[in-house]
Every structure is written in C-alpha cells, then in structure tokens.
Amino acid sequence: MPTDDVERFLGALSPAHRDEVRKQPRPQQEKLAAAWETELREDTDLDTLSELSPAAAESEAARRVVEGKDS
Questions:
Q1: Domain range summary for the chain, segments of one domain joined by +
Q2: How many Cβ atoms from other residues are within 10 Å of residue 12's Cβ?
Q3: Would you say the C-alpha torsion 30, 55, 11, 3 has a positive or negative sign?
Q4: For the region Disordered, what residue ranges are annotated (predicted)?
Q5: Do residues 17 and 62 lie in contact, with contact meaning Cβ atoms separated by under 8 Å?
Q6: For residue range 15-69, what is the model confidence (pLDDT) as tens digits?
Q7: What is the pLDDT of residues 23-36, one digit of tens each?
Q8: Could you tell me if 41 and 65 are in contact, meaning their C-beta atoms sit under 8 angstroms apart?
Q9: Which of 68, 66, 29, 62 is nearest to 46 (CA)?
Q10: Closest CA to 40 of 19, 22, 61, 69
C-alpha cells in the first residue's frame, strides 16, 4: 500500500488520468494530491460513498480534482 500522497492519488485515478498526471512536474502532482486529500476530507457527499466503498470515494475525488469539477 503506497504511503506517498502522490502515489496514493495516482492509484485512485483512472488509467487515462494517471498517465496525464504522471506527465506533469512533481510539484504539480503534489498540488493535485493535496487537493485530492482536501476533497476527501471536506466533501460530505463523498462521506456517504466512502462508507459503501472507500476506493470508489477516492476514485471519485481524484476524478473531480483532475477534471476540475465538483460533480
């Protein structure tokens, strides 16, 4: 299980988004990973999803961060 925030974030992404993020400089990857952590903590809709499937909640939050969308 990855302990690095960027690696955890990359693991939550779809393959296409993962490739896109890996092409970015490390500081940008770290910024996105931090935004992902914030999304997971602050979005109450993800809390409900997380109870059902933590992996699905992480994936949804990652998608939102990369796509710059809230839903």
A1: 2-68
A2: 23
A3: positive
A4: 10-71
A5: yes
A6: 999 999 999 999 999 999 999 999 988 888 887 777 788 888 899 999 999 999 6
A7: 999 999 999 999 99
A8: no
A9: 62
A10: 61
